[in-house]
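This follows on from our talk about sequence and fold. Please put the record directly below this note.
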Amino acid sequence: MIRKITVLLAGMLVTVAAYAAGAQLRANHPDSYTVRRGDTLWAISAKFLTKPWLWPEIWQANPQVRNPHLIYPGDVLNLSFINGGGGGPSLRLEPSVHAEGDAVPAIPLTELQTFLKDLRVVDSNTVKSAPYVVGLEEGRLRSTAGQNIYVRGLQGAPGQRWAIVRPTHYFRGFDQGNPDKADLVAHDLDSNVAVFKTPWDEDTRNDGHYGKGQDMGIEVSVVGTAETLRMGDPSTLLLLNSTIDIRSGDRVMPLDDAPYDPYFYPHAPTSVAKDARVIGFADAMDAVGPHQVVALSIGKRDGVDNGQTYSIYQPGQTVSDDVANSSWHRDVGKQVTLPAEYVGHVMVFRTFDRVSYGLIMDGLRPIQIGNQLRMPD
Protein backbone atom coordinates (compact mmCIF):
# COMPACT_ATOMS: atom_id res chain seq x y z
CA MET A 1 0.00 0.00 0.00
CA ILE A 2 1.40 3.38 -1.00
CA ARG A 3 0.96 6.41 1.20
CA LYS A 4 2.37 9.89 1.60
CA ILE A 5 3.89 11.34 4.71
CA THR A 6 1.42 13.68 6.33
CA VAL A 7 1.32 17.36 5.40
CA LEU A 8 2.60 18.17 8.88
CA LEU A 9 5.86 16.41 8.18
CA ALA A 10 6.02 17.66 4.61
CA GLY A 11 6.07 21.20 5.99
CA MET A 12 8.67 20.50 8.65
CA LEU A 13 11.27 23.28 8.84
CA VAL A 14 13.51 23.63 11.85
CA THR A 15 15.93 26.48 12.36
CA VAL A 16 19.12 24.97 13.70
CA ALA A 17 20.56 28.42 14.37
CA ALA A 18 18.10 28.85 17.23
CA TYR A 19 19.77 25.87 18.90
CA ALA A 20 23.34 26.75 17.94
CA ALA A 21 24.42 26.92 21.56
CA GLY A 22 23.33 23.36 22.23
CA ALA A 23 23.31 21.52 18.92
CA GLN A 24 25.78 22.74 16.34
CA LEU A 25 26.21 21.54 12.79
CA ARG A 26 29.37 19.68 11.95
CA ALA A 27 31.78 21.59 9.76
CA ASN A 28 31.72 18.73 7.23
CA HIS A 29 27.98 18.08 7.34
CA PRO A 30 26.51 16.79 4.07
CA ASP A 31 24.27 18.99 1.95
CA SER A 32 21.65 16.27 1.94
CA TYR A 33 21.09 12.73 3.11
CA THR A 34 18.66 10.10 1.88
CA VAL A 35 17.35 7.90 4.68
CA ARG A 36 18.16 4.23 4.14
CA ARG A 37 16.69 1.07 5.54
CA GLY A 38 18.68 0.04 8.60
CA ASP A 39 19.45 3.63 9.61
CA THR A 40 18.80 4.93 13.10
CA LEU A 41 17.94 8.50 14.03
CA TRP A 42 21.08 8.74 16.14
CA ALA A 43 23.30 7.61 13.25
CA ILE A 44 21.62 10.04 10.85
CA SER A 45 21.96 12.95 13.27
CA ALA A 46 25.62 12.12 13.83
CA LYS A 47 26.23 12.94 10.17
CA PHE A 48 25.42 16.62 10.64
CA LEU A 49 25.26 17.37 14.40
CA THR A 50 28.19 17.61 16.79
CA LYS A 51 25.85 16.35 19.52
CA PRO A 52 23.62 13.74 17.86
CA TRP A 53 21.74 13.03 21.06
CA LEU A 54 20.10 16.48 20.75
CA TRP A 55 18.12 15.58 17.62
CA PRO A 56 14.72 15.53 19.42
CA GLU A 57 15.21 19.12 20.60
CA ILE A 58 16.00 20.26 17.08
CA TRP A 59 13.25 18.39 15.27
CA GLN A 60 10.67 19.35 17.88
CA ALA A 61 11.50 23.06 17.66
CA ASN A 62 8.65 23.36 15.15
CA PRO A 63 5.40 22.82 17.13
CA GLN A 64 3.78 21.34 14.02
CA VAL A 65 6.03 18.28 14.26
CA ARG A 66 4.06 15.88 16.42
CA ASN A 67 6.43 12.93 16.21
CA PRO A 68 10.04 13.33 15.07
CA HIS A 69 10.29 9.54 14.76
CA LEU A 70 8.10 9.50 11.67
CA ILE A 71 10.96 9.48 9.20
CA TYR A 72 11.10 6.70 6.67
CA PRO A 73 13.57 5.18 4.21
CA GLY A 74 13.59 7.32 1.07
CA ASP A 75 12.98 10.61 2.88
CA VAL A 76 15.62 13.26 2.21
CA LEU A 77 17.20 15.49 4.86
CA ASN A 78 18.46 18.74 3.34
CA LEU A 79 20.79 21.22 5.02
CA SER A 80 20.72 24.58 3.33
CA PHE A 81 20.83 28.33 3.83
CA ILE A 82 17.38 29.81 3.64
CA ASN A 83 16.75 33.50 3.04
CA GLY A 84 14.69 35.25 5.65
CA GLY A 85 14.18 34.42 9.28
CA GLY A 86 17.81 35.20 10.02
CA GLY A 87 19.19 33.27 7.07
CA GLY A 88 20.73 30.63 9.30
CA PRO A 89 21.41 27.03 8.38
CA SER A 90 18.23 24.98 8.49
CA LEU A 91 17.20 21.36 8.42
CA ARG A 92 14.38 20.53 6.02
CA LEU A 93 12.71 17.16 5.68
CA GLU A 94 11.56 16.26 2.16
CA PRO A 95 9.32 13.20 2.58
CA SER A 96 8.96 10.71 -0.21
CA VAL A 97 6.17 8.43 -1.32
CA HIS A 98 6.96 5.04 0.10
CA ALA A 99 5.41 1.66 0.73
CA GLU A 100 3.87 0.80 4.07
CA GLY A 101 6.73 0.08 6.44
CA ASP A 102 8.43 0.85 9.71
CA ALA A 103 9.73 4.28 10.57
CA VAL A 104 13.42 4.68 11.27
CA PRO A 105 14.03 3.89 14.99
CA ALA A 106 16.13 5.99 17.31
CA ILE A 107 18.37 3.04 18.17
CA PRO A 108 18.77 -0.50 16.73
CA LEU A 109 15.91 -2.19 18.59
CA THR A 110 16.50 -5.53 16.87
CA GLU A 111 19.75 -5.85 18.82
CA LEU A 112 18.02 -5.22 22.16
CA GLN A 113 15.07 -7.62 22.10
CA THR A 114 16.62 -9.91 24.71
CA PHE A 115 17.26 -7.05 27.12
CA LEU A 116 13.79 -5.56 26.63
CA LYS A 117 11.83 -8.80 26.97
CA ASP A 118 13.89 -11.59 28.53
CA LEU A 119 16.07 -9.95 31.19
CA ARG A 120 15.27 -8.08 34.36
CA VAL A 121 17.21 -6.98 37.44
CA VAL A 122 15.60 -7.63 40.83
CA ASP A 123 16.57 -7.37 44.46
CA SER A 124 18.61 -10.33 45.66
CA ASN A 125 16.14 -11.03 48.48
CA THR A 126 13.34 -11.23 45.91
CA VAL A 127 15.26 -13.93 44.06
CA LYS A 128 16.09 -15.89 47.19
CA SER A 129 12.47 -15.85 48.43
CA ALA A 130 10.87 -16.61 45.05
CA PRO A 131 9.13 -19.97 44.42
CA TYR A 132 11.49 -22.51 42.91
CA VAL A 133 11.46 -25.70 40.85
CA VAL A 134 12.01 -28.62 43.21
CA GLY A 135 11.44 -31.54 40.86
CA LEU A 136 10.64 -32.58 37.30
CA GLU A 137 8.26 -35.10 35.78
CA GLU A 138 9.45 -38.71 35.98
CA GLY A 139 12.43 -37.69 38.06
CA ARG A 140 14.27 -36.19 35.11
CA LEU A 141 17.28 -33.98 35.63
CA ARG A 142 16.05 -31.40 33.10
CA SER A 143 12.67 -30.64 31.57
CA THR A 144 11.41 -29.35 28.22
CA ALA A 145 8.10 -27.94 26.94
CA GLY A 146 5.05 -30.16 27.43
CA GLN A 147 6.26 -31.74 30.66
CA ASN A 148 5.20 -31.13 34.25
CA ILE A 149 7.40 -29.34 36.74
CA TYR A 150 6.92 -29.15 40.51
CA VAL A 151 7.31 -25.85 42.35
CA ARG A 152 7.50 -25.03 46.05
CA GLY A 153 6.39 -21.77 47.64
CA LEU A 154 3.92 -20.87 44.88
CA GLN A 155 0.91 -18.68 45.67
CA GLY A 156 -1.76 -18.36 43.00
CA ALA A 157 -4.53 -20.27 41.28
CA PRO A 158 -4.89 -22.94 38.57
CA GLY A 159 -4.58 -21.45 35.10
CA GLN A 160 -2.18 -18.70 36.16
CA ARG A 161 0.93 -18.33 34.01
CA TRP A 162 4.45 -17.73 35.28
CA ALA A 163 7.92 -16.92 34.06
CA ILE A 164 10.67 -19.43 34.80
CA VAL A 165 13.86 -17.46 35.41
CA ARG A 166 17.51 -18.22 35.99
CA PRO A 167 19.85 -15.67 37.58
CA THR A 168 22.78 -14.80 35.37
CA HIS A 169 24.67 -11.89 36.97
CA TYR A 170 25.10 -10.57 40.47
CA PHE A 171 25.73 -6.83 40.44
CA ARG A 172 27.66 -5.58 43.43
CA GLY A 173 30.50 -3.26 44.36
CA PHE A 174 33.36 -3.11 46.81
CA ASP A 175 35.09 -0.29 48.64
CA GLN A 176 31.87 1.69 48.29
CA GLY A 177 32.72 3.53 51.47
CA ASN A 178 35.09 5.48 49.25
CA PRO A 179 33.12 6.53 46.13
CA ASP A 180 36.31 7.57 44.38
CA LYS A 181 37.46 3.94 44.49
CA ALA A 182 34.09 2.29 43.95
CA ASP A 183 35.14 -0.64 41.80
CA LEU A 184 31.82 -2.06 40.60
CA VAL A 185 31.63 -5.46 39.02
CA ALA A 186 29.16 -7.86 37.46
CA HIS A 187 29.57 -11.28 38.99
CA ASP A 188 28.75 -13.98 36.42
CA LEU A 189 26.65 -16.55 38.25
CA ASP A 190 27.09 -19.13 35.52
CA SER A 191 30.90 -19.00 35.49
CA ASN A 192 32.99 -21.98 36.49
CA VAL A 193 34.60 -20.09 39.34
CA ALA A 194 31.38 -19.44 41.26
CA VAL A 195 30.53 -22.08 43.87
CA PHE A 196 26.94 -22.22 45.13
CA LYS A 197 25.78 -24.56 47.88
CA THR A 198 22.11 -23.63 47.31
CA PRO A 199 20.42 -22.30 44.16
CA TRP A 200 21.41 -18.69 43.46
CA ASP A 201 22.90 -18.14 46.89
CA GLU A 202 25.92 -15.87 47.24
CA ASP A 203 29.37 -17.18 46.36
CA THR A 204 30.19 -19.12 49.53
CA ARG A 205 33.94 -18.66 49.16
CA ASN A 206 33.51 -15.02 50.20
CA ASP A 207 37.14 -14.34 49.37
CA GLY A 208 36.45 -10.83 48.13
CA HIS A 209 37.19 -11.65 44.47
CA TYR A 210 33.74 -10.42 43.49
CA GLY A 211 33.68 -7.66 46.05
CA LYS A 212 32.24 -7.23 49.51
CA GLY A 213 30.22 -4.09 48.85
CA GLN A 214 26.53 -3.44 48.79
CA ASP A 215 24.35 -5.66 46.62
CA MET A 216 22.94 -3.83 43.61
CA GLY A 217 20.62 -6.56 42.39
CA ILE A 218 20.57 -9.80 40.47
CA GLU A 219 19.96 -10.07 36.75
CA VAL A 220 17.60 -12.92 35.87
CA SER A 221 16.93 -14.33 32.43
CA VAL A 222 13.50 -15.64 31.46
CA VAL A 223 14.15 -19.19 30.26
CA GLY A 224 10.56 -20.41 29.95
CA THR A 225 6.89 -19.98 30.83
CA ALA A 226 4.58 -22.34 32.69
CA GLU A 227 0.92 -22.61 33.68
CA THR A 228 -0.39 -23.77 37.05
CA LEU A 229 -2.30 -27.08 36.87
CA ARG A 230 -2.72 -27.88 40.57
CA MET A 231 -1.95 -25.87 43.69
CA GLY A 232 -0.21 -27.51 46.62
CA ASP A 233 3.20 -27.95 48.21
CA PRO A 234 4.65 -28.57 45.74
CA SER A 235 2.37 -27.20 43.02
CA THR A 236 2.18 -28.80 39.58
CA LEU A 237 2.88 -26.59 36.54
CA LEU A 238 2.82 -27.40 32.85
CA LEU A 239 5.90 -26.09 31.06
CA LEU A 240 4.58 -24.23 28.01
CA ASN A 241 7.85 -23.27 26.38
CA SER A 242 11.52 -22.85 27.18
CA THR A 243 14.65 -21.52 25.54
CA ILE A 244 16.85 -23.98 27.45
CA ASP A 245 16.26 -27.03 29.61
CA ILE A 246 14.53 -26.22 32.89
CA ARG A 247 16.29 -27.62 35.94
CA SER A 248 15.76 -27.95 39.66
CA GLY A 249 16.48 -24.65 41.38
CA ASP A 250 15.13 -22.39 38.64
CA ARG A 251 12.98 -19.61 40.11
CA VAL A 252 9.37 -18.76 39.33
CA MET A 253 8.23 -15.13 38.99
CA PRO A 254 5.18 -13.28 37.62
CA LEU A 255 5.11 -12.65 33.89
CA ASP A 256 6.10 -9.18 32.75
CA ASP A 257 3.51 -8.47 30.08
CA ALA A 258 4.07 -4.71 29.96
CA PRO A 259 4.92 -3.72 26.38
CA TYR A 260 8.12 -1.79 25.91
CA ASP A 261 8.16 1.57 24.16
CA PRO A 262 9.73 1.29 20.70
CA TYR A 263 10.51 5.03 20.74
CA PHE A 264 13.37 6.55 22.70
CA TYR A 265 13.96 10.27 23.09
CA PRO A 266 17.62 10.99 23.95
CA HIS A 267 17.90 13.66 26.61
CA ALA A 268 20.33 14.83 29.25
CA PRO A 269 19.80 13.90 32.92
CA THR A 270 19.19 16.66 35.41
CA SER A 271 22.17 15.43 37.42
CA VAL A 272 24.63 12.52 37.55
CA ALA A 273 25.48 10.54 40.67
CA LYS A 274 29.11 10.98 41.69
CA ASP A 275 29.87 7.26 41.51
CA ALA A 276 27.88 6.51 38.33
CA ARG A 277 29.90 3.99 36.34
CA VAL A 278 29.88 1.22 33.78
CA ILE A 279 29.70 -1.99 35.81
CA GLY A 280 29.24 -4.82 33.33
CA PHE A 281 29.13 -6.01 29.72
CA ALA A 282 26.52 -8.17 28.08
CA ASP A 283 28.67 -9.89 25.47
CA ALA A 284 32.29 -9.02 26.15
CA MET A 285 35.06 -9.63 28.67
CA ASP A 286 37.37 -6.61 28.69
CA ALA A 287 35.87 -3.78 26.63
CA VAL A 288 32.98 -2.83 24.35
CA GLY A 289 32.25 -0.45 21.49
CA PRO A 290 29.28 1.07 19.64
CA HIS A 291 26.00 -0.87 19.63
CA GLN A 292 27.02 -3.09 22.53
CA VAL A 293 25.08 -3.24 25.79
CA VAL A 294 26.49 -2.27 29.18
CA ALA A 295 25.15 -2.26 32.73
CA LEU A 296 25.27 1.03 34.65
CA SER A 297 25.44 1.54 38.42
CA ILE A 298 22.43 3.89 38.48
CA GLY A 299 18.71 3.24 38.28
CA LYS A 300 15.23 4.54 39.01
CA ARG A 301 16.11 5.53 42.57
CA ASP A 302 18.72 7.87 41.03
CA GLY A 303 16.13 9.46 38.74
CA VAL A 304 17.21 7.52 35.65
CA ASP A 305 14.68 6.99 32.87
CA ASN A 306 14.77 5.63 29.34
CA GLY A 307 16.54 7.84 26.83
CA GLN A 308 18.90 9.53 29.29
CA THR A 309 22.24 10.01 27.59
CA TYR A 310 25.61 10.22 29.30
CA SER A 311 29.16 10.89 28.28
CA ILE A 312 31.58 8.14 29.31
CA TYR A 313 35.01 9.03 30.64
CA GLN A 314 38.05 6.86 31.22
CA PRO A 315 39.55 7.84 34.61
CA GLY A 316 43.02 9.31 34.34
CA GLN A 317 46.00 7.23 35.37
CA THR A 318 48.00 8.04 38.47
CA VAL A 319 51.66 8.63 37.60
CA SER A 320 54.77 9.78 39.40
CA ASP A 321 56.00 13.34 38.83
CA ASP A 322 59.69 12.54 38.97
CA VAL A 323 60.68 15.92 37.53
CA ALA A 324 59.05 17.88 40.35
CA ASN A 325 60.77 15.57 42.79
CA SER A 326 64.15 16.33 41.17
CA SER A 327 64.89 12.64 41.02
CA TRP A 328 66.82 10.67 38.44
CA HIS A 329 64.91 7.58 39.46
CA ARG A 330 61.62 6.60 37.89
CA ASP A 331 58.35 6.24 39.83
CA VAL A 332 59.59 7.80 43.06
CA GLY A 333 58.09 11.28 42.67
CA LYS A 334 54.85 12.70 44.01
CA GLN A 335 51.76 10.97 42.62
CA VAL A 336 49.70 12.95 40.09
CA THR A 337 46.36 11.87 38.63
CA LEU A 338 45.96 12.69 34.96
CA PRO A 339 42.66 14.14 33.67
CA ALA A 340 39.87 11.79 32.70
CA GLU A 341 39.33 11.42 28.95
CA TYR A 342 36.06 11.21 27.02
CA VAL A 343 35.57 7.84 25.32
CA GLY A 344 31.95 7.71 24.12
CA HIS A 345 28.20 8.13 24.70
CA VAL A 346 25.74 5.70 26.26
CA MET A 347 21.93 5.91 26.13
CA VAL A 348 19.76 4.18 28.74
CA PHE A 349 17.07 1.94 27.25
CA ARG A 350 15.85 0.00 30.30
CA THR A 351 15.92 0.89 33.98
CA PHE A 352 15.56 -1.00 37.24
CA ASP A 353 15.79 0.08 40.87
CA ARG A 354 19.56 0.40 41.14
CA VAL A 355 20.89 -0.79 37.77
CA SER A 356 20.19 0.26 34.18
CA TYR A 357 20.98 -1.15 30.76
CA GLY A 358 22.52 1.24 28.26
CA LEU A 359 23.53 1.06 24.61
CA ILE A 360 26.91 2.44 23.56
CA MET A 361 25.98 4.89 20.80
CA ASP A 362 29.43 6.01 19.69
CA GLY A 363 32.97 5.94 20.97
CA LEU A 364 36.52 7.11 20.40
CA ARG A 365 38.08 4.13 22.16
CA PRO A 366 36.93 0.92 23.90
CA ILE A 367 34.68 1.36 26.94
CA GLN A 368 35.83 -0.50 30.06
CA ILE A 369 34.32 -1.48 33.39
CA GLY A 370 34.79 1.34 35.88
CA ASN A 371 34.49 4.12 33.28
CA GLN A 372 32.68 7.12 34.74
CA LEU A 373 29.40 8.69 33.60
CA ARG A 374 29.06 12.45 33.23
CA MET A 375 26.64 14.95 31.76
CA PRO A 376 26.68 14.64 27.94
CA ASP A 377 28.76 17.25 26.15
Observations:
- The mean pLDDT is 75.
- The longest helix spans residues 41-46.
